Amino acid sequence: MFNSCAARDDNSYWKRRAYEVQKHYWDGEITFSDEDSVKVTDALKERLQGIRYYVGDKLGELSPLINRLDCEMEALRSESNEQTTEEFMSRVKSLSLGRNEGMVQFTAEIMEKATTICGSPPCQFSAVAIGSMARGETTPYSDLEFFFVIKNPDSVTYF
Degrees (nearest 5) of the Cα angle 112, 114, 116? Predict the structure, then answer.
């Protein structure tokens, strides 16, 4: 709840306080400064916003196709709309697959940055995507859901 409130308030006090809470959790072992942490977070937010704008622009390009369709359900399957419907569906599917790949890459960036902040993992691990990412349906507004499989159960605190 604290992080949710802090995210909605641009006051630097909250960002500093969130950093202190994280540092306390890690017993003061964080070597990354709060300023660096904020820079990383802001860069990732900016990257996600760029992904969202890109998808919005691509969806906007589909407007002419949508306008050509008679959107009554029976009419979508009519011969006159068949080609337009197929083109629309093909372009949406292509955009969706491309964005899922992009979100997988974005998640990898997040994990890379987390490793930079938290230090090297104490054991081998795998991050397994679940939810929309596992189904190949991730959008720039999806929750990023995954779980960790770790080699050494004694290292669970790190994760």
Answer: 75
The interaxial angle of helices 79-118 and 34-60, nearest 10 deg, is 170
Total count of residues recorded for the chain: 159
Tokens at 3, concatenated? 């992080």
How many angstroms separate the most distant Cα atoms in the chain?
67
CA distances from 48 to 35, 93, 103, 110, 147 (A): 20, 21, 9, 11, 21
Q: What percentage of the chain exceeds 90 in pLDDT?
A: 6
pLDDT for residue 70 = 57
Q: What's the CA gap between 102 and 78, in Å, rounded?
A: 35
Query: 36 or 128: whose pLDDT is higher?
Result: 128
- Inform me whether the pLDDT recorded for 21 exceeds 80: no
Distance CA 157, CA 35 (A): 24
SS3 128: strand
6, 38 Cβ separation under 8 angstroms = no
Does residue 146 contact residue 107 with C-beta atoms inside 8 Å?
yes
